[in-house]
């Protein structure tokens, strides 16, 4: 059954992986791409990066952090055997996979999920892959074993020092950039993290690719909601990206746009929580 939830696995506080039966998506999926998902007929459309897939099994894996109304609803109500209303994809331009040299793949928080297939593809293509994965604390780290397998070496950092090195991901990144020749850096995570990774790479003269996650509605470039300024031009993350050269992104504008609907998002979340409380009463 298309869009059926094959399995749900908790990965940490408010983070779960969903294996979804989507054979057409799985047959064409490539690293860096995403899908647009709708939970039910009245649900909003949300973009979710492909964390893994199996063309043989006809399944895709999505990692979801419960931070807003729809992701919270997904975590609470979508179980094994249920069905999503829509899974559209694969969307976006795939990652450019290099076949030589040494690269660094930096993952922040839930960014571990989209970094994993990129690192795996780079390693399979013959590139030497150094991984850096960071989170606020140990309980927010996941898929460390998968990343270790996808990279030749992996550095773990946490803000509080509960796992790996007590540091931000930018600290080992700067050290690696200073110590050896790096062909390219990939960085995926919170916008602020990617901004500072881009600054470190610009200082070292190393190209960096980032994956942008601005507000997105239709995923086809028609609505214009996912626009970002890259290289002084308006680009659309859904069709031109989601990956862009990090040193070309207007980070201050992107971060401001991410907060544009914060009040509406808060109201939607409060309405959902009130509805859940009333249903349970």
Describe the structure using short key phrases:
about 280 residues, alpha/beta, single chain, about 30% helix, 15 strands, Elongation Factor Tu (Ef-tu), domain 3, 8 helices, seven-stranded mixed beta sheet, Rossmann fold, six-stranded antiparallel beta sheet
Question: How would you sum up this structure in a few lines?
Answer:
The protein has 281 residues and is an alpha/beta fold. The chain contains 8 helices and 15 strands. It starts with a strand and ends with a helix.
Describe the structure.
- The chain has 281 residues and is an alpha/beta fold.
- 31% of the residues lie in helices and 30% in strands.
- It has three domains: 87 residues, Elongation Factor Tu (Ef-tu), domain 3 (Beta Barrel); 117 residues, 3-Layer(aba) Sandwich (Rossmann fold); 70 residues, no CATH class.
- The protein contains eight helices and 15 strands.
- The strands form three sheets. A seven-stranded mixed sheet has the order 10-9-8-7-11-12-15, sandwiched between helices. It has a six-stranded antiparallel sheet with strand order 1-2-5-4-3-6.
- Helix 2 packs parallel to helix 8, helix 3 packs parallel to helix 4 and helix 5 runs parallel beside helix 6.
- The longest helix is centred in the C-terminal third of the chain and has 19 residues.
- The two termini are 34 Å apart.
């Amino acid at each position: 059954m298309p869009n059926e939830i094959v399995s749900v696995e908790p990965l940490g506080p408010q983070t779960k992986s969903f294996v979804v039966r989507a054979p057409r998506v799985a047959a064409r999926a490539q690293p860096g791409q995403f899908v647009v998902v709708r939970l039910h007929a009245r649900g909003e459309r949300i973009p979710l990066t492909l964390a893994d897939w199996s063309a043989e099994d006809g399944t895709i894996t999505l990692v979801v952090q419960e931070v807003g109304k729809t992701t919270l609803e997904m975590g609470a109500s979508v179980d094994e055997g249920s069905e999503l209303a829509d899974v559209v994809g694969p969307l976006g331009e795939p990652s450019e996979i290099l076949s030589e040299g040494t690269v660094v793949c930096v993952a922040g928080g839930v960014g571990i999920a989209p970094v994993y297939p990129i690192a795996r593809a780079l390693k399979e293509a013959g590139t030497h892959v150094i991984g850096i994965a960071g989170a606020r604390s140990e309980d927010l780290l996941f898929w460390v074993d998968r990343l270790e397998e996808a990279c030749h070496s992996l550095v773990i950092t946490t803000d509080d020092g509960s796992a790996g090195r007590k540091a931000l991901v930018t600290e080992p990144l700067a050290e690696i950039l200073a110590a050896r020749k790096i062909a390219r850096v990939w960085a995926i995570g919170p916008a602020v993290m990617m901004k500072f990774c881009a600054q470190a790479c610009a200082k070292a003269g190393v190209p960096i690719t980032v994956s942008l996650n601005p507000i997105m509605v239709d995923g086809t470039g028609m609505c214009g909601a996912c626009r970002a300024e890259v290289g002084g031009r308006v680009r659309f993350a859904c069709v031109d990206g989601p990956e862009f050269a990090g040193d070309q992104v207007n980070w201050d504008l992107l971060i401001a746009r991410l907060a544009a609907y914060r009040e509406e998002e808060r109201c939607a979340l409060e309405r959902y929580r009130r509805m859940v409380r009333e249903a349970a009463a």
